[in-house]
Fold this protein.
Amino acid sequence: MSNDVTVTYRDFGGCTIVTVPGDVDQGSADEIKASAAADDVRHVVLDLGNASAVHPAAADVLAALHRRTQERGGGVCFVTREDGVRSQVSAAAAGSPISPSFYDEIGDALEASMAARQAARRDCDTVNAAG
């Protein structure tokens, strides 16, 4: 079974939506990393709704994406209902200053991503107005 990653760019709050159609292995993790590698990608909604497992090496890649987007002033909203997937990603991201955010539904993740983007814009506008 192929585990191709479907990458969709939408102007919904300026976030990148990445959908993985099954379990996350090293190959699909590399595709996720490549799809969110652009310097301007700060807000990612990662839909893992069809994944029942994440390979440990792939969890490390997802945790690195989480940290990288945080360093850019953004974040990753993970969509999954699977407790095992949540615990694998959380364990891999244990050293991050902010824990990963998980959502049951993609709509909730998009809403959270858009709210975070708007808050970041307000912060930037406040700094620019003060400077």
